[in-house]
From TrEMBL:
Domain 3-hydroxyacyl-CoA dehydrogenase NAD binding: 18-197
Similarity field: Belongs to the 3-hydroxyacyl-CoA dehydrogenase family.
Native source organism of the sequence: Streptomyces goshikiensis
Full protein name: 3-hydroxybutyryl-CoA dehydrogenase
Keyword Ion transport: no
Pfam families (UniProt xref): 3HCDH (PF00725), 3HCDH_N (PF02737)
Record bears the keyword Oxidoreductase: yes
Length: 297
């Protein structure tokens, strides 16, 4: 294979038309930063009702940015006007980059990639996944263009946190990863780090065992949720404690990442603790359902 002449990709391949599959907390955040960066952005949800809810999520976040003085009202209105919300995956046919951000479930994500492979017309288009822990290789192999499939892993809240992990599978070409990085850095103004295609990549491989340790501590009655969180905020200057952070990420997502890590490495420290699984079964998913380790709203 010849070396990639431009590590950040060529200008000829600049991305202007972006698609986002999934308009939940991550998908809506990704769509918001794309639209704020001036990109024509189409967000695809499961149906028209879910698409309306995704639009509302972005509108609320843009309003928050205006209220915090991070964005002027005109720019917020322009960003919303650049977004199209749809319930039809076919509306992504002309996209140059599609970022999948559906639920953290390998079967669901694989189905999305198989469908995108058939729908997205440009053979040079990049198909990216915001997965936290599912192998990019598995998603690439659901398509006939694994060389154009890459992980683009954003962090929650997406409009606030600057990092994106760029994850190449064994099939991802240097050109694809370079163009993905050029998009993240050049178009979105975020900071990229590169990771090999190992479950959890860099950040979740370090973060999730820590979150699970906090759940085990609460589960065993070692300390209260409030004290565990206060310990890390006041004793280590973290912006939020581990249980509040787990609530922010979503306990279903934390459990799904733990399962992927455990499946890959078989290390007990990655196994989801019973309390976490019971809370997911109970629908206590954290901030998005109003109750997790803490109460919201
Ligand atoms: N657009 C732009 N900026 C915004 C914004 C928006 N929609 N909403 C908030 N902000 C800005 C605020 O203006 C503020 O900026 P300044 O500090 O410059 O004033 C900053 O973001 C913080 O906002 P708030 O004042 O609303 O809230 P806070 O100070 O309580 O912080 C928090 C909230 C940003 C969530 C912070 O607690 C934090 O960073 N927590 C850690 C989050 C974290 O670790 N996320 C990673 C999770 S792991 C993950 O996502 C990956 C995975 O796969 C699971």
């Amino acid at each position: 294979m010849s070396p990639d002449p431009s590590p950040l990709g060529s200008a000829a391949h600049h991305v202007h038309r972006v698609g986002v599959v999934g308009g939940g907390q991550m998908g809506a955040g990704i769509a918001e930063v794309c639209a704020r960066a001036g990109l024509d952005t189409v967000v695809c949800e499961a149906d028209a009702t879910a698409a309306r809810a995704a639009r509302e999520r972005v509108a609320v976040s843009l309003e928050r940015a205006v209220q915090r003085g991070k964005l002027d009202r005109l720019s917020a209105e322009d960003a919303l006007a650049r977004l199209l919300f749809t319930g039809d995956l076919d509306d992504l046919a002309d996209r140059q980059l599609v970022i999948e951000a559906v639920v953290e479930n390998a079967d669901v994500k694989t189905e999305v990639f198989t469908a995108l492979d058939k729908i997205v017309e440009d053979p040079e288009a990049i198909l990216a996944s915001n997965t936290s822990a599912i192998p990019v290789m598995r998603l690439g192999m659901a398509t006939r263009r694994a060389d154009r499939v890459v992980g683009l892993h954003f962090f929650n809240p997406v409009p606030v946190l600057p990092l994106v992990e760029i994850v190449s599978s064994l099939h991802t070409t240097a050109d694809t990863a370079g163009r993905a990085e050029a998009f993240v850095v050049g178009a979105l103004g975020k900071t990229a780090i590169r990771s090999q295609d190992r479950s959890g990549f860099v950040v979740n491989a370090l973060l999730v065992p820590y979150l699970l340790a906090a759940v085990r501590m609460a589960e065993s009655g070692y300390a209260t949720a409030a004290d565990i969180d206060a310990g890390m905020v006041l004793g280590c200057a973290h912006p939020m404690g581990p249980l509040k952070l787990a609530d922010l990420i979503g306990l279903d997502t934390v459990a799904a990442i733990a399962e992927s890590l455990y499946e890959e490495f078989k290390e007990p420290l990655y196994a989801p603790p019973p309390l976490l699984q019971r809370m997911v079964q109970a629908g206590l998913l954290g901030r998005k359902t109003g109750r997790g380790f803490h109460m919201y709203g």
